[in-house]
């Protein structure tokens, strides 16, 4: 087995990407897009004020050139139809050699059409049904938001990205260059022009959607199963069983979720290899100073202890914290509404959006505030309807709701009561009639370059009463640049999007994998050496890690029918042993070898003469045996030609002449008489053990 | 290893489905239903056959309920709350959501309206449902170390599943009720090819073969349309879930198309609530419905209104869906009492009516009066229309499924004895699969598949995967790959068996190989006649002529066929030479292993003839 980490990703929106080589098959895990990278492009329509800002700066061209680390201005952003940044290292792989694609969450689908539009692509794609649905909607939304740029810049005439031309100039800010060219300066090839709706359609046609914990078998060899990871609706960890053991792929996971089905421990227990691919801890500055506060699982890990450990992972502290964050966002929005300001929320994580919608409508209903909530997205209606029809991917409380006849998410009622308004776009005809400020708006895209969020931000950015709710990490980069100066309040939230680092040791002691593959960057942050039961291997980006096999030999199932036909040979010296020749057809089914009766079944396999012998032949015994068969012979002692080996020769005289040469290594029958030869062979076979 | 199949209910009858299957020692109960036509103790499966002491937790590994119909889930609260079963219960999400509704409805009907003693209470139902674990389609659940279960789409009603259960190497499928054709809102049953020791199938329509459903749909619509056009009232007694939705979709659609303004009513809040469930469980409906759902949810009926009791005597035409079906009790029966005497009216009975119910009486013959349960008689002058839609598969569907799955054995349940017997004969004769039709209380036993497990060495596996091409050169060149796995099974007491390649056997046994071979130095030609290389060529040609299908390697003064090796002997006196022929001349010193015993002699003979 070999693992190559193609990209460690960057947060929830850009999950990691790997190539796994297993049983001779190449498996690509996730195919994301680096959506944060499109912040290098200027949003449309460019704001007047922003251009003033830049012209002001342009008056001092000398200063601009001299000061290398000057402050960036909106004019530095690329004014062109955006291209999208894919995983660079993926382009180094021959697409047609990928056998399987596994997708672990909706964000991992976004780059898939780039791969499937390649004519050589022939891999089988597996993802959960919910991921497929949500992923498709997100891609369609992306395409529809991108249309605005197409409309603005017109059709691009050449396939060469003109915007790239001037980016290597000296005056281009380093920050921008870094995003475009990457750390090592070779990222240019990873920029792609966005796919079309047709590309999405043909991509989704190639997908095999799997149900919750459904077992799917690839090529009879690999049995794959998706188990919930708790990160978001439809997000999963993969369990792969093959003839050489079991492997689990643990992606960004959340143990207790308030929207999605929680992390599924049971299926992941006791696997041979576990690939830990949760890089979310890199997003936080949190460091586990004292490394392993590892629970002591020295000798007797009783069942109860195991449960206790699992329970410690499932403590509610973490999830309560998340609820508090949500409540805080709500209270901030209510506060601004109270003061007459509007709130713009640009969060991508669907689970968070659904919870916020529910919380906000509830809190608005209980308060005297009459503030409308708008959800503006081309796929909002379908997405919100869909989330109420997938109980299998929701957390327990929401499943219970559905089972008692209520919708799993509360938004349905509010939509009916006209408290929540859904619009496909900001220019939707009915929007203006129901528009009312202050209001609370959920609108994509979190990069602040695409979709209705751009216009709304331009509208409200000067209003100090208004509030902008952002995903973490955006404000530090180029994100807000085109909207500066900004008077709006900004709330930057980081929601839990993976396993807390300090929980990793406990997780490992609960799951007890025989071998764990941990990213070196994660390993640097936590001391895992104290975990005795596991062997830990480290992998790093763009390096291939070879993992030696754990189970020595794979199992074979022999059909009872075939086994009943075996003819057993007893061994002279060893009573405990029985051996039999086995002939049949070896099949591979459901990841297991199976031996069945072959096409040309040799009925006489029992009677066939043995072909392999061991032991030694004492010449005297052989002479006696031959005598019983009516063959006479005499023993001649001689030393071999080189003198070292003790060769013994038996001269056979009657009924016809022949020689038998015997040594420790073997016996040779020398005669031109076929019958005598077979008789002698029988005699030897009677003395030796053989098969 | 064995499978025992104990029939507690629905053996040679329809009602109280309950089958307990023991696979390699694990007991699983499939369905736990009640008989709608019985009032006495026969209403429930005879659980005492399962355990004399009543310790069901110890006996059963789990219960799996296939769908929410009363004859499949009706006895569950009784079994868990009164009999005290506490183990795991599995059902699909829709079944888990809808079963309590059905149970509660039935309980209310029985207790409130028929005045029977209460068999289980509302609390019983609630407590029982708490023990239920929901499963998704195809989700593979490991119930315990050995038992694995999986549900497949059965199509019969929303959330109906066929259940696959596997213990060790033995596997069975219990179909529950299923439908092999799609209907208005549900898809057809869908299962993959599985290796099965036993298939337990329903056989409600064991001898019926149905054609297209469109004429039947038209017939139904016309009957209803004619009735309301004539100012009559149409009563459709049905259970809240399933047929009601299908017929309602049909009517709603027809009303739209024909622009009919006659109201369609649903009798109880239950059906309205049920429609609500259908909207959320859209992923369990047919592909067609699922696709439409994004724009318009087909369970948002436009023409359907809630019914009020006062409307029974209101003038003017209407269509009413009233629960329960089969006219066995409750509101539908009450409405029937009022509407049956008018010849303008229509009673459309969808689906199957269990013997003993008013529905059954109406369908069997044309009665003019009908006895109700409390002794009152009702004149029946209204039209009776039997809606021949059934969510059950027909005989062809059963045969198709059986043929597709090709199990080693078939057990038929949930049908009427005479037709089951004829289906049994058909399965035995046409498909050549042993088939059984056990009665309630009977047990059928089967032997089950077992595999012998062994670990395989790498060399063995490698030898299996290397192709073994055979070239035959008759008129055209034929290439065949006769790949056979050829290994040696080594069994040691108290250890796992191993499969190794024959070369590895001695290593495994810690012995030294002892090679037995044959040798003969064969005279080829008289003294010094031709060049050596030509001689080898000549010989090899001769060998190819006579010994077919061999590949000969020549090099210098050697030739090799398989393990047979011949070298021109340069020695004056070779030990391998037989005494007689040790004269002067050219000799080919041959050596071959026992594996090629016959081949070696064949070649020797060729050489000898050549001499």
TrEMBL record, chain A:
Residues spanning the signal sequence: none
Protein name, per record: Beta-Casp domain-containing protein
On whether Transferase is a keyword of this UniProt record, the answer is no
Localization (cell): Cytoplasm; Nucleus
Q: Which InterPro entries match?
A: Beta_Casp, Integrator_9su, RibonucZ/Hydroxyglut_hydro
The Beta-Casp domain sits at 353-474
Naming one, the record's GO cellular component terms include: cytoplasm
In what ranges is there compositional bias, type Polar residues?
Answer: 288-301
Region annotation (Disordered) ranges: 288-307
Please list the GO biological process terms of this entry. Answer: snRNA 3'-end processing
**Organism in which the protein naturally occurs:** Arabis alpina
Keywords for the protein's UniProt record, in alphabetical order: Cytoplasm, Nucleus
TrEMBL record, chain B:
What CDD domains has UniProt attached to this entry?
Answer: INTS11-like_MBL-fold (cd16291)
Subcellular localization(s) per the UniProt record = Nucleus
Q: Which GO terms describe its biological process?
A: polar nucleus fusion; snRNA processing
Cleavable signal peptide: none
Q: Kindly state which keywords UniProt assigns to this record, in alphabetical order.
A: Hydrolase, Nucleus
* GO terms, molecular function: hydrolase activity; RNA endonuclease activity
Q: Where is the Beta-Casp domain?
A: 244-362
Where would I find the Metallo-beta-lactamase domain in this sequence?
Answer: 15-224
This protein's GO cellular component annotations are: nucleus
Q: What Pfam families does the database record attribute to this sequence?
A: Beta-Casp, Lactamase_B_6, RMMBL
Similarity field: Belongs to the metallo-beta-lactamase superfamily. RNA-metabolizing metallo-beta-lactamase-like family. INTS11 subfamily.
Q: What is this protein called?
A: Cleavage and polyadenylation specificity factor subunit 3-II
Name the species this protein comes from: Arabis alpina (Alpine rock-cress)
């Amino acid at each position: 087995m070999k693992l190559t980490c193609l990209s460690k990703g960057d947060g929830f929106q850009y999950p990691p990407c790997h190539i796994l080589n297993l049983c001779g098959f190449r498996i690509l895990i996730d195919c994301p897009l680096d959506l944060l990278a499109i912040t290098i492009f200027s949003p449309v329509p460019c704001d007047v004020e922003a251009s003033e800002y830049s012209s002001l700066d342009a008056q001092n061209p000398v200063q601009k050139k001299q000061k290398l680390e000057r402050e960036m201005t909106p004019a530095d952003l690329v004014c062109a139809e955006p291209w999208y940044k894919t995983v660079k290292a993926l382009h180094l792989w021959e697409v047609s050699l990928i056998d399987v694609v596994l997708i672990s969450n909706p964000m991992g689908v976004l780059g898939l059409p780039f791969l499937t539009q390649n004519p050589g692509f022939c891999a089988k794609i597996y993802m959960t049904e919910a991921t497929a649905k949500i992923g498709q909607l997100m891609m369609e939304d992306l395409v529809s938001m991108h249309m605005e740029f197409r409309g603005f810049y017109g059709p691009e005439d050449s396939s060469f990205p003109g915007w790239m031309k001037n980016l290597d100039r000296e005056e281009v800010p380093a920050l921008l260059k870094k995003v475009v060219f990457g750390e090592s300066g070779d990222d240019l090839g990873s920029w792609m022009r966005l796919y079309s709706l047709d590309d999405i359609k043909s991509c989704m046609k190639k997908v095999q959607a799997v149900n919750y914990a459904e077992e799917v078998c690839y090529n009879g060899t690999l049995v794959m199963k998706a188990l919930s990871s708790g990160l978001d609706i439809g997000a999963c960890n993969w369990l792969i069983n093959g003839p050489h053991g079991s492997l689990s792929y643990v992606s960004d996971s959340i143990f207790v979720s308030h929207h999605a089905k929680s992390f599924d421990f049971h299926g992941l227990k006791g696997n041979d290899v576990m690939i830990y691919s949760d890089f979310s801890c890199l997003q936080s500055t949190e460091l586990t100073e004292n490394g392993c506060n590892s629970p002591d699982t020295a000798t007797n890990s009783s069942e109860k202890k195991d449960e206790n450990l699992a329970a410690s992972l499932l403590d509610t502290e973490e999830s309560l914290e998340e609820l508090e964050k949500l409540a805080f966002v709500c209270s901030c929005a209510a506060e601004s509404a109270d003061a007459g300001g509007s709130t713009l929320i640009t969060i991508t994580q669907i689970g968070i959006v659904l919870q916020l919608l529910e919380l906000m409508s509830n809190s608005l209903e209980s308060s005297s505030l009459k503030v409308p909530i708008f959800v503006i997205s081309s796929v909002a209606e379908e997405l919100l309807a869909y989330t109420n029809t997938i109980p299998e991917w929701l957390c327990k409380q929401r499943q219970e709701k559905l089972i008692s006849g209520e919708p799993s998410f509360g938004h349905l009622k509010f939509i009916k009561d006209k408290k929540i308004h859904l619009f496909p776009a900001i220019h939707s005809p009915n929007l203006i009639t129901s528009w009312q400020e202050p209001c609370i708006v959920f609108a994509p895209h979190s990069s602040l370059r695409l979709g209705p969020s751009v216009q709304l931000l331009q509208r409200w950015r000067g209003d100090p009463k208004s509030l902008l709710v952002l995903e973490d990490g955006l404000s530090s980069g180029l994100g807000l640049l085109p909207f500066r100066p900004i008077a709006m309040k900004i709330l930057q939230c980081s929601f839990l999007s993976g396993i807390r680092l300090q929980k990793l040791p406990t997780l490992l002691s609960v799951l007890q994998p025989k071998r764990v593959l941990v990213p070196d960057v994660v390993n640097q942050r936590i001391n895992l050496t104290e975990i005795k039961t596991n062997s830990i291997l480290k992998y790093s980006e763009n390096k291939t890690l070879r993992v030696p096999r754990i189970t020595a030999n794979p199992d074979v199932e022999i059909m009872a029918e075939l086994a009943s036909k075996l003819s057993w040979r007893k061994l002279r010296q060893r009573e405990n042993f029985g051996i039999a020749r086995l002939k049949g057809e070896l099949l591979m089914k459901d990841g297991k070898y199976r031996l069945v009766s072959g096409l040309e079944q040799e009925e006489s396999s029992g009677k066939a003469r043995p072909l392999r012998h061991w032991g030694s032949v004492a010449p005297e015994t052989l002479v006696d045996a031959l005598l019983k068969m009516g063959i006479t012979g005499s023993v001649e002692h001689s030393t071999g030609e080189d003198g070292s080996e003790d060769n013994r020769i038996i001269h056979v005289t009657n009924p016809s002449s022949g020689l038998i040469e015997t040594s420790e290594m073997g016996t040779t029958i020398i005669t031109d008489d076929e019958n005598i030869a077979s008789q002698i062979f029988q005699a030897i076979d009677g003395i030796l053990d053989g098969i | 290893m064995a499978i025992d199949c104990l029939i507690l209910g629905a053996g040679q009858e329809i009602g109280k489905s309950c089958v307990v299957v023991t696979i390699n020692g694990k007991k699983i109960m499939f369905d736990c239903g009640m008989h709608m036509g019985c009032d006495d103790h026969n209403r429930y499966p005879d659980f005492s056959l399962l355990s004399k002491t009543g310790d069901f937790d110890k006996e059963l590994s789990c219960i799996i309920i296939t769908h929410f119909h009363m004859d499949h889930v009706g006895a569950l609260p009784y079994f868990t709350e009164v009999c005290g079963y506490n183990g795991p219960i599995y059902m699909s999400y829709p079944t888990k959501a809808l079963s309590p509704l059905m149970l509660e409805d039935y309980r209310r009907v029985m207790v409130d309206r028929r005045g029977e003693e209460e068999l289980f209470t509302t609390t019983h139902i609630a407590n029982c449902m708490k023990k239920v674990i929901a499963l998704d389609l195809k989700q593979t659940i490991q119930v315990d170390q050995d038992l694995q279960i999986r549900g497949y789409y059965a199509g019969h009603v929303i959330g109906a599943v066929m259940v696959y259960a596997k213990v060790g190497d033995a596997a069975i499928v219990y179909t529950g009720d299923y439908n092999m054709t799609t209907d208005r809102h549900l898809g057809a049953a869908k299962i993959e090819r599985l290796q099965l020791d036993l298939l337990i199938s329903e056989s409600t329509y064991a001898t019926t073969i149905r054609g297209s459903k469109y004429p039947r749909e038209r017939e139904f619509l016309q009957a209803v349309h004619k009735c309301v056009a004539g100012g009559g009232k149409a009563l459709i007694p049905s259970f809240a879930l399933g047929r009601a939705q299908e017929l309602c979709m049909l009517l709603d659609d027809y009303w739209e198309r024909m622009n009919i303004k006659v109201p369609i009513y649903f009798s109880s809040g239950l059906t309205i609530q049920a429609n609500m469930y259908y909207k959320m469980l859209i992923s369990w409906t047919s592909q067609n419905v699922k696709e439409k759902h994004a724009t318009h949810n087909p369970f948002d009926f436009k023409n359907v209104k809630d019914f009020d009791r006062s409307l029974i005597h209101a003038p003017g035409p209407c269509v009413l869906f009233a629960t329960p079906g089969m006219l066995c009790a409750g509101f539908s029966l009450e409405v029937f009492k009022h509407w049956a005497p008018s010849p303008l009216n229509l009673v459309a009975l969808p689906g199957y009516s269990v013997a003993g119910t008013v529905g059954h009486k109406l369908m069997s013959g044309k009665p003019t009066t009908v006895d109700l349960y409390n002794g009152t008689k009702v004149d029946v002058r209204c039209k009776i229309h039997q809606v021949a839609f059934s969510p059950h598969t027909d005989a062809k569907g059963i045969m198709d499924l059986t043929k597709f799955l090709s199990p080693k054995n078939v057990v038929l349940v949930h049908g009427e004895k005479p037709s089951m017997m004829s289906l049994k004969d058909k399965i035995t004769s046409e498909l050549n699969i042993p088939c059984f039709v056990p009665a309630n209380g009977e047990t059928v036993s089967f032997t089950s598949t077992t595999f012998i497990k062994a670990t395989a060495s790498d060399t063995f596996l490698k030898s299996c995967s290397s192709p073994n091409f055979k070239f035959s050169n008759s008129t055209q060149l034929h290439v065949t790959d006769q790949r056979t796995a050829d290994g040696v099974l080594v069994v040691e007491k108290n250890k796992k068996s191993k499969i190794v390649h024959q070369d590895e056997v001695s290593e495994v046994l810690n012995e030294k190989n002892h090679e037995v071979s044959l040798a003969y130095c064969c005279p080829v030609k008289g003294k010094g006649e031709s060049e050596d290389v030509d001689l080898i060529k000549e010989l090899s040609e001769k060998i190819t002529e006579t010994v077919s299908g061999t590949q000969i390697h020549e090099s210098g003064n050697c030739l090799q066929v398989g393990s047979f090796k011949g070298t021109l002997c340069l020695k004056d006196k070779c030990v391998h030479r037989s005494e007689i022929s040790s004269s002067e001349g050219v000799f080919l010193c041959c050596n071959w292993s026992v594996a090629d015993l016959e081949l070696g002699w064949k070649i020797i003979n060729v050489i000898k003839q050549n001499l």
